[in-house]
Amino acid sequence: MDVLMPQLGETVTEGKISTWYKSVGDSVKPGDNLFEIETDKVSMEVPSITSGVITEIRVGKGETAMVGAVVAVIGDSAGASAQTAPAQAAPAAAPAKSTVAAKAVAPVATFQPTKTNGMMDPYREVRTPERNYGAARQGGVLVTPLARRLAVENGIDLSRVKGSGPHGRIVASDVKNAGADSRAGGMIASGPSLAEIKTIYADSAYSEIPLDGMRKTIATRLTQSKQSVPLFYLTADVAMDALLRVRKEANAAAPMKDGLPSWRISVNDFIIKALALGLQKVPAANAIWAEDRILRFEHSDIGVAVALDDGLLTPVVRHVDTKSLRIVSGEMRDLAARARDKKLKPAEYQGGVSAVSNLGMYGVREFSAIINPPQSTILAVGASRRVPVEAEDGGVRFETQMTVTLSCDHRVIDGALGAQLLAAVKNYLEEPVTMLVG
Fold first, then answer.
1. Is the pTM of this model over 0.85?
2. N or C terminus of the chain: which is more exposed, having fewer CB within 10 Å?
């Protein structure tokens, strides 16, 4: 049985094997972990779905393979010894490139996790009637793995690319030509080349840091967002004294367990909840842009930016509008911890209608965040500070204020609608009791 590189998300085209738990000649049974793979966002252990002996490992530790590529072979226990000996006596030469292309098999289509006998089967082949040679479908059109990867890396919208391959298949040259046409038309900004940059800094001391998959994806998606999404920004100051009092009282009421509070609600948890309820109060803003239409959602799924050592990940808390602050807090802590360990599943960081990015803990007073498509808004949160304000009697008093900035996709949200959403969020934060009873 061929062991294939599984699909870990719609935009993931390849995976890197970080660890092999088994070696050639080892016996395996269903559920045994074979290897661990890393993508630009997550790490995942891949189990065996069959019994047998590993007769061949084609993609070694540290090597990268395209989705659908054969990374190992599991043979029957009875005939394993005959197959194993040659593999151990004469190991295959190291591949010339670190990326292993998907094996040309006809017919082959996308590789999607399915369940077999109650277990997740990451290798199951979903066949299509035509010969597609490893191509996966995108919007009904076949796209080769290399073309898909080039499109992600260069911010090319595949729905606007015409395929020149058999049956209209989009191949790598189509994506390259689309990128060249876009640059010629001024759609994609082109900066200095690597050689030009090195010439400019020829007299400076520096070290080169290769980009990993996560940093490449962040650069591509956010560049695409700034170039293709018409953004505008709305800023407001929020009085925080009432929220800080309610938070203190709520945390003080938490029952103790093993000498520690059983929960602890953060200011960020209140902000996540306030944004979700604000989207419910202004339902026209609880929507995203989908090319030729707008999708408006019933519930509010909120992404929360989590800083990692090598980039940024935005896990999504689902149906925040229906959950208590305590549940939102618990789910967010779990998601953040697994995000830092790269243990999130694609479904846990994809989607969402809006997001929160909080840099207040770093002392940042105010900033504007870039929307992560297809989301239509993102709320940037600054640090709280004590400021003087005019009292009702004409005197001066001090209050705690926090500056928030809402970035909006103008295709979905007009200025007045964005202002209504920001006003609703501000009202929930300034009257936090409404979030406890809502």
1. no
2. C
